[in-house]
Amino acid sequence: MKQRILVVEDDEDIIKLLKLYLENDGYDVITCTNGVDALEILKNIKIDLAVLDIMMPKMDGYELTKRIRQLSNLPVIILSAKNEVSDKVLGLSIGADDYMTKPFNPLEIIARIKSNLRRFYDLNKDEPSKEPYDKIIIGTIELDLTNFTAKKNGVELFLTPTEYRILHLLMKSPGRVYTKLQIYENIKGEYFESDDNTIMVHISKLRDKLEDNPKNPIFIKTVRGVGYKVEKK
Questions:
Q1: Looking at the structure, do residues 27 and 112 belong to the same domain, yes or no?
Q2: Type and span of the H or E element at 60
Q3: Are residues 183 and 214 in the same domain?
Q4: Distance between CA 7 and CA 193 in Å, rounded?
């Protein structure tokens, strides 16, 4: 069965371009031009991945991303003309898995779509865990490898798929330091120069959810000039 991509964009030329490339690559494509219609589609049709513009009528891409995260943890890629670092930080902070700016190379967005789909569905496919245990517990944080959930002090945390993958990578090798590039390649596959700040944003959001004091983290530690690690307990 073909994987189904939802493209939410108010520029008809971009819709036609993405639809052409995606269908040529074997995907089923549904399109709409505003966030309100997109939300209705997501409530009624199984979507495997969504590509969203930010500046749209009726409901913008930021609000749509927040609404999607209330319904599903499917991969979300923001495709926007807003190219400030703050725009990217906001998009990733509210739950997007990836952020691309316009103008864009269609081949790059296809590569990102494939990467996000592969990582998400490899993570969630119904197979026995390849880990020796079904859970990883470090301090107050518990990672459930069967149900793909995380808890702090027994309370479930809401993590995006990307946040879960980063946490899993760090927790399965406590004490090991991972560079930003290593983290990105482990959770995304391909690395693009425009992704330099992406991991920092995801780490920041993880700390907001995991740490008692995110400004003074004791669980996910920064190794200055190298990368990140989860402390052994």
A1: yes
A2: none
A3: yes
A4: 24
